[in-house]
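Hi team,

As requested, here is the filled-out complex form for the s-citryldethia Coenzyme A run. I kept the field names the same as last time so the parser does not choke. Let me know if anything looks off before we queue the next batch.

— J.
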Amino acid sequence: MAERTATLTLDGKTYDLPVLSPSAGPDVLDIRKLYAQADVFTYDPGFTSTASCDSAITYIDGGKGELLYRGYPIDQLADESHYLEVCYLLMNGELPNRQQMEDFEYRITRHTMVHEQMLNFFRGFRRDSHPMATMVGVVGGLSAFYHDSLDINDPWQREVASMRLIAKLPTIAAMAYKYSVGQPFVYPRNDLDYASNFLHMCFAVPAEPYHVEPALAKAMDRIFTLHADHEQNASTSTVRLAGSSGANPFACIAAGIACLWGPAHGGANQACLEMLREIGSVDKIPEYVARAKDKNDPFRLMGFGHRVYKNFDPRAKVMKESADEVLDLLGVQDNPLLQVAKELERIALEDPYFVEKKLYPNVDFYSGIILEAMGFPTSMFTPIFALSRTVGWISQWMEMIGDPQGKIGRPRQLYTGSTARDYVHVDQR
Ligand code: SDX
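And here is what came back:
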């Protein structure tokens, strides 16, 4: 029995709602029995006030601009750790010792190739397909190749499927890119670390050796870490809902990729860079800020605002530092897009509209600038977000599947349609 309860009074009756206390964040009203007791639903489109599950993986304090992966602050992990170590942490709950890290890295490295027959999948797409369309199709298609890891009730099969997904997503994303530019696929290499391998698969060509610049590999690895998980966001909630029906992990991750594609979510990094390019110069910024504030104009400043953060997105801060480092390294620090981005951020953060609505730059605001400087086309920004987030989706999926109280997710509704009426024959209409 919960120590505290909230009391709901409705039509002269009172109902006690248990109050559950988290290890951090707001208390939770347990309404699981409300419909059975009071014959009423709660109403929360967009789930702005709803906790959909228990989770011990990622904590966000939107007011403070705090993001913790298993309790570790994101800025410390971005500075001190690396992506595969963060993958181990998110999946297992603790940082690995040296042996655990070596074993984990060995297994991931040796799952990076895809079945050779998957190359035919790509050939079914047009060359100008968006890489996200290719990724949704190919990742879902993994279900057809790995029949030995589809039984979600077998912990070993769950783990093998998880390792395969984390290992193969960079390969599939790189293949989607190569296919879109008409270049041959580049196989993964076991002598390269995760981020270097991805850069090599994207930018190497058979005609000459490709040298991975260590500083760029580090920046790539940091981008993977910053995007790894983020509590119950739209795509993670999609993966959990798909997983709650018992769907196999490959299908669930494909569903997450599809949801992430939207410009209000993971597609914002592509949309943000396209917006910066459309603004084009600092003197055009006031016009676009005015449009973003105009209720009759659907335009929004892409890369600004967040459902949870009402302060700086801590990932944006790290990304901004990375942008300066990468552009300095590449000698493009006077990148006009970066100048527009920095001036847009300055103007927006002083504008009363954005201040009142607590609209700050989010993770997508600076990431596109770095990725473009590294040579990626805008169409590859969201695929990179998707491959980074795969470990978060997988960790949340494993947590859900492992929950003994787990049940299929099935929300109800506030019905506003016609009540029962009899069919009318077409001659009487
Ligand atoms: C990600 O959930 C996650 O954790 C997501 C993510 C993750 O890691 O998984 O963090 C990744 O998706 C980051 C967000 C990327 N999206 C964008 O950058 C797109 C632009 N942002 C907006 O579409 C918007 O801010 C959302 C979708 C991100 C959040 O929207 P909310 O919380 O549903 O808030 P809202 O749309 O109700 O906006 C509140 C008010 C509105 O004004 P009013 O109706 O109150 O007058 O703020 C305004 C909005 O019009 N507003 C903006 C704005 N974002 C919100 N006005 C101008 N420009 C914007 N970007």
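Two things worth flagging: The beta strands are 4-10, 13-20, 28-29, 58-61, 66-69, 72-73. The CA atoms of residues 150 and 248 lie 5 Å apart.

Thanks,
J.
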